């Protein structure tokens, strides 16, 4: 297994940080754009796509700022994080994604985030 490489992406989202936080940190919010369904029990989140389940642990979260998850099967220190950044001057809201992928899967991973965030923007009415 090759080593995963950290990558970051930034998306400008027209939404309040408070509303956006609900979509990145709660099972109901994540179910609307990230996965077909999401269930949680404490720190354990179960993401369901086309009937297949992936377990993740909520590592950290801070209200209206970020949520960080790690997939259960990851044996390295990789995680994925969704962080809300508000520009102090313009008040523009951005969603900053940090994730890890193997080099051979980097383009696919970035395309997946592009598609997921596009769905999120659509739900939020952010063009």
From TrEMBL:
It comes from the Bacteria. Transmembrane segments: none annotated. It holds the Pfam family START_2. Residues 1-125 form the START-like domain. Signal peptide: none annotated. This is START-like domain-containing protein. It comes from Aureicoccus marinus.
């Amino acid at each position: 297994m090759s080593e995963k490489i950290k990558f970051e992406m930034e998306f400008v989202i027209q939404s309040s940080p408070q509303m956006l936080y609900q979509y990145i940190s709660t099972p109901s919010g994540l179910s609307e754009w990230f996965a077909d369904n999401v269930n949680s029990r404490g720190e354990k989140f179960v993401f369901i796509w086309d009937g297949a389940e992936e377990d993740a642990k909520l590592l950290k979260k801070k209200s209206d700022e970020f949520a960080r998850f790690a997939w259960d099967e990851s044996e390295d220190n990789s995680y994925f994080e969704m962080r809300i950044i508000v520009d102090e001057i313009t008040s523009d809201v951005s969603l900053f994604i940090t994730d890890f992928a193997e080099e051979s899967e980097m383009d696919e991973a970035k395309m997946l985030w592009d598609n997921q965030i596009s769905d999120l923007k659509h739900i939020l009415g952010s063009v």
